[in-house]
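sorry for the late reply, my laptop died twice this morning and i had to redo everyting from scratch. anyway the thing you sent over, i finally got around to it. pasting the sequence first so we're on the same page, its 128 residues, then the predicted structure underneath. double check i copied it right bc i was rushing
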Amino acid sequence: MPRHAIIEAPGSPAAVGPYSKAVRSGNLLYLSGQTPIDPATGKLVEGDIARQTQQVFKNLEAVLKGAGCTFDNVLKANVYLTDMADFAAMNGVYSGIFQAPYPARTTVAVAALPLGCKVEIEVVAEIG
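ok and here's the structure:
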Protein backbone atom coordinates (compact mmCIF):
# COMPACT_ATOMS: atom_id res chain seq x y z
CA MET A 1 0.00 0.00 0.00
CA PRO A 2 1.55 3.34 -0.97
CA ARG A 3 1.96 6.29 1.35
CA HIS A 4 -0.86 8.66 0.49
CA ALA A 5 0.15 12.18 1.38
CA ILE A 6 3.35 13.56 2.80
CA ILE A 7 2.77 16.57 5.05
CA GLU A 8 5.03 19.59 4.84
CA ALA A 9 5.29 21.61 8.01
CA PRO A 10 6.67 25.14 7.83
CA GLY A 11 8.00 26.21 11.20
CA SER A 12 9.15 22.75 12.20
CA PRO A 13 12.77 21.63 12.25
CA ALA A 14 14.30 19.90 9.26
CA ALA A 15 14.29 16.12 9.41
CA VAL A 16 17.56 14.67 10.71
CA GLY A 17 17.26 11.60 8.52
CA PRO A 18 15.47 10.06 5.55
CA TYR A 19 11.89 10.29 6.81
CA SER A 20 8.77 12.38 6.40
CA LYS A 21 7.56 14.60 9.24
CA ALA A 22 4.08 13.17 8.80
CA VAL A 23 2.18 10.87 6.48
CA ARG A 24 -1.56 10.85 5.94
CA SER A 25 -3.41 7.66 5.15
CA GLY A 26 -7.18 7.99 4.92
CA ASN A 27 -8.27 10.04 7.89
CA LEU A 28 -5.23 9.15 10.00
CA LEU A 29 -2.10 11.26 10.34
CA TYR A 30 1.09 9.59 11.56
CA LEU A 31 3.69 12.03 12.86
CA SER A 32 7.33 11.07 13.10
CA GLY A 33 8.88 11.51 16.51
CA GLN A 34 9.85 15.08 17.26
CA THR A 35 12.88 16.00 19.30
CA PRO A 36 13.67 19.34 21.00
CA ILE A 37 15.36 20.93 18.01
CA ASP A 38 14.89 24.67 17.63
CA PRO A 39 13.75 25.14 14.00
CA ALA A 40 15.37 28.59 13.87
CA THR A 41 18.85 27.33 14.72
CA GLY A 42 18.65 23.63 13.84
CA LYS A 43 20.26 22.88 17.20
CA LEU A 44 19.07 20.96 20.22
CA VAL A 45 17.43 23.16 22.87
CA GLU A 46 19.58 23.21 25.99
CA GLY A 47 18.04 22.83 29.40
CA ASP A 48 16.09 20.51 31.60
CA ILE A 49 13.44 18.00 30.59
CA ALA A 50 10.61 20.55 30.93
CA ARG A 51 12.26 22.95 28.49
CA GLN A 52 13.02 20.14 26.05
CA THR A 53 9.46 18.79 26.31
CA GLN A 54 8.04 22.27 25.61
CA GLN A 55 10.11 22.47 22.42
CA VAL A 56 9.01 19.00 21.35
CA PHE A 57 5.37 20.10 21.65
CA LYS A 58 6.07 23.28 19.66
CA ASN A 59 7.53 21.08 16.91
CA LEU A 60 4.60 18.66 17.03
CA GLU A 61 2.17 21.58 16.88
CA ALA A 62 3.86 22.92 13.73
CA VAL A 63 3.55 19.53 12.01
CA LEU A 64 -0.07 19.11 13.11
CA LYS A 65 -0.84 22.62 11.84
CA GLY A 66 0.72 21.72 8.49
CA ALA A 67 -1.98 19.06 8.17
CA GLY A 68 -4.77 21.34 9.38
CA CYS A 69 -4.90 19.72 12.82
CA THR A 70 -4.42 20.66 16.46
CA PHE A 71 -3.67 18.69 19.61
CA ASP A 72 -7.43 18.06 19.87
CA ASN A 73 -7.06 15.69 16.89
CA VAL A 74 -4.45 13.49 18.63
CA LEU A 75 -5.58 9.92 19.36
CA LYS A 76 -2.33 8.37 20.60
CA ALA A 77 1.03 9.58 21.86
CA ASN A 78 4.26 7.66 22.37
CA VAL A 79 6.78 9.30 24.69
CA TYR A 80 10.42 8.22 24.83
CA LEU A 81 12.58 9.31 27.77
CA THR A 82 16.25 8.61 28.39
CA ASP A 83 15.62 8.75 32.16
CA MET A 84 12.36 7.77 33.85
CA ALA A 85 13.31 10.12 36.69
CA ASP A 86 12.21 12.83 34.21
CA PHE A 87 8.67 11.41 33.98
CA ALA A 88 7.00 13.81 36.44
CA ALA A 89 8.49 16.94 34.85
CA MET A 90 7.65 15.73 31.33
CA ASN A 91 4.14 14.85 32.50
CA GLY A 92 3.72 18.34 33.94
CA VAL A 93 4.29 19.86 30.50
CA TYR A 94 2.25 17.12 28.77
CA SER A 95 -0.77 17.72 31.03
CA GLY A 96 -0.87 21.35 29.90
CA ILE A 97 -1.14 20.37 26.23
CA PHE A 98 -4.04 17.91 26.19
CA GLN A 99 -7.56 18.24 27.55
CA ALA A 100 -9.88 15.44 28.72
CA PRO A 101 -10.72 13.08 27.21
CA TYR A 102 -6.98 12.47 26.89
CA PRO A 103 -5.34 10.59 24.03
CA ALA A 104 -4.03 7.11 24.69
CA ARG A 105 -0.35 7.19 25.66
CA THR A 106 2.66 4.98 26.12
CA THR A 107 5.81 6.20 27.88
CA VAL A 108 8.99 4.15 27.74
CA ALA A 109 12.59 4.56 28.79
CA VAL A 110 15.19 4.21 26.05
CA ALA A 111 18.97 3.96 26.15
CA ALA A 112 19.54 7.02 23.97
CA LEU A 113 17.83 9.43 21.58
CA PRO A 114 19.06 11.37 18.52
CA LEU A 115 21.50 14.21 19.17
CA GLY A 116 21.65 13.35 22.87
CA CYS A 117 18.21 14.77 23.67
CA LYS A 118 16.23 13.67 26.73
CA VAL A 119 12.76 13.27 25.15
CA GLU A 120 11.11 12.40 21.86
CA ILE A 121 7.37 12.25 21.25
CA GLU A 122 5.38 10.89 18.32
CA VAL A 123 1.63 11.06 17.82
CA VAL A 124 -1.18 9.69 15.67
CA ALA A 125 -4.03 12.08 14.90
CA GLU A 126 -7.37 11.87 13.15
CA ILE A 127 -8.07 14.39 10.41
CA GLY A 128 -11.56 15.83 10.10
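The chain is about 20% helix and 30% strand.
thats about all i looked at so far, will dig more tmrw
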